[in-house]
Amino acid sequence: MQINLVGTTLTLLVTLAALVLAGYFALQRRVFLAVVSIGCFLVLFNPTAAMSAELCKPIKYADGDTFNFKRGSELVRVRLAGFDAPEVGQPFSRRATDHLRMLTLGGARCDCYKADRYGRSVCTVRTLQGANVAPLMLAAGYGCIDPRFENEADPVDRAQARAALEDAQRAGHQPLAEKRAHVGARSRSGGRLQRRGTAGHGARAPSRPNHGHGAGGARCPGRDQAGAKQRRMINQ
């Protein structure tokens, strides 16, 4: 496991700042504010997870929630825990992938704890500064919370993801629904997969996507159609 000196130093400095702030409030007998300071720090930054995860530098991105990195001579396929992003062939998949690439451009920290049925390592991925990538993707509108994946994350990360999704909905950050007439969206018509504006007369683009619907979670639109193509790309 590699240790990033800059990231570790930043973690320690932020931790110290949070403790100083909490101590100040405690001395002022503002216990509630002291507790809130520590609580917000743990929820937003989660320094323990940031320091325990391994340094990972993506070398290939499959979509907005899957990438590869090298661990020595081993190639590791990562699926980000806790959310689902548009897959290859779905509207705005490329934008989601680009956003993930931007967040992890200089590397990231991967806390990998199991393998999924496709052999990918399921990991909580954080930026080098310690921010959880999944809520950042959700806040930008590039994903949804899938009940099948949500329980993989720990309670703190789940709360962050829910809050990010609610913020995205309030801000209207739902790019999957933008300019759907120009997307060439796919739908099923007569049992065959057809593209808008070709043989599938009357085929309609996906309506405004279901991004969580509160506590219930949601599937990203068109997941079944693109699933086989995504699995082929992952296994290349």
From TrEMBL:
* Chain ranges passing through the membrane: 32-51
Locations of Basic and acidic residues compositional bias? 166-181
Annotated keywords: Membrane, Transmembrane, Transmembrane helix
Q: Which InterPro entries match?
A: SNase_OB-fold_sf, Staphylococal_nuclease_OB-fold
UniProt region (Disordered), positions on chain: 166-236
- Where the record annotates domain TNase-like, the positions are 57-174
Any one Pfam family here would be: SNase
Q: Which positions carry the signal peptide feature in this UniProt record?
A: none
The superkingdom of the source organism is Eukaryota
Question: Could you identify this protein by its name?
Answer: Sse domain containing protein
The organism is Daphnia sinensis
